[in-house]
């Protein structure tokens, strides 16, 4: 492998997900850049990057390299467009793994009660139209968690970021339960 090709490959592997999207997050990851990302702009940049890197546009050795680049772009996009995955990724960059940590649970009894009550509210729904206020309330929770995470990452408060990422996992699980709702189907929340 030529030195320039090896250097190019190594730089791609060393890039953070943020560096792959310089138009959307020019300041990079927090604390220098924001936690909250314009997901429409991210998607547009993702599509531009994929149009250039797509393996069907390349042949031979370039095709294999393009497959790797395309997979990395997909992974970065999926991570950055989802606030929970983004928070988990940022914490993992700092050596804190909350994505796989089953002990990372919230010890706040009020939060746990709110989660249980929400689960019961979802189970009590009779018609899909009754889900709207539950979705709206949960969307507000997710938005609030994003604001807390933004402030925590900006101030480099990793303990608060970790706690809020765990809390956000509950809200995302509720969102998934709302999206998968079927009348009479039990609600299973995974933490």
Q: TL;DR of this structure?
A:
It contains seven helices and no strands. With 191 residues, the protein is mainly alpha-helical. α2 runs antiparallel to α3, α3 packs across α4 and α4 runs antiparallel to α7.
Please give a handful of descriptors for the protein shown:
single chain, 191 residues, mainly alpha, 0% strand, globular
Topology readout:
Elements: H1 3-14, H2 39-53, H3 61-81, H4 83-93, H5 109-124, H6 131-154, H7 158-179
Helix pairs in contact: 2-3, 3-4, 4-7, 5-7, 6-7
Shape estimate: globular
Low-confidence stretches: 1-13
The separation of the N and C termini measures 45 Å
Largest sheet, strands/sense/barrel: none
How does the helix and strand content classify structurally?
A: mainly alpha
Q: Fraction of residues in helices?
A: 55-70%
Q: Whole-number radius of gyration? A: 20 Å
Strand tally, please?
0
Q: Helix count, per DSSP?
A: 7
Word description of this protein:
The protein has 191 residues and is mainly α. α2 packs antiparallel against α3 (61-81) and α6 runs antiparallel to α7 (158-179). It has helices at 3-14, 39-53, 61-81, 83-93, 109-124, 131-154, 158-179. Mean pLDDT is 86; it is low at 1-13. The protein has seven helices and no strands.
